[in-house]
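During the no-cost extension, the postdoctoral fellow (Dr. R.K.) reprocessed legacy sequence entries with the updated structure-token encoder. One reprocessed record is reproduced below for audit purposes.
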Amino acid sequence: MISTSDFRKGSTKILFNNEPWLILDYHSVKPGKGGTYLKTKMKNLLTGRVLEETFRSAEKFPEPDLEQKQMQYLYKDEHYQFMDQDSFEQVGFNEDQIEAVKRYLKDGIIYNVLNFEGSPILVEPPMFMVLEVIETVPGVKGDTAQGGSKPAKLESGVTVSVPLFINEGHKVKVDTREDKYIEKVG
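Re-encoded structure tokens follow.
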């Protein structure tokens, strides 16, 4: 069982009304009279619906039956095709299921797939990815005294802010949680 005191923003998952929910945000409220309660903002992992709900302090919830699998992205036809790294079984995902990872899809990369009661419900990208810059304006020599940055479009289609010395063809490491440049690679 998961208590409200165990809630962590963006990582705690609970079973609420027989569906898996992700705690996006919460804050504790202590009224002048009565017990403390938590106001939470949660996302349904099946439907994507966001809900604000209030819970009593120390209320407990069952843990959802979630299983994490490693799957390799293969290609897109009418669905986005992934291969299970253990059983080598292919699974097709629709547009809604890969919405969170769509900007980071790249052939051959291993993604985390979240399963609820045996069915895949969510695809998450690796925390860090190395991607090639395919489009950016050239940096101007001598324009780096104060640092500075410019937008760069990467091979997966996502645009991130990079330092001025990064040019087309360079490979960069990106934090997929924040769409943030980390470092130049190679």
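The first strand starts at residue 2 and ends at 3. The chain is about 0% helix and 55% strand. The remaining legacy entries will be reprocessed before the final report is submitted.
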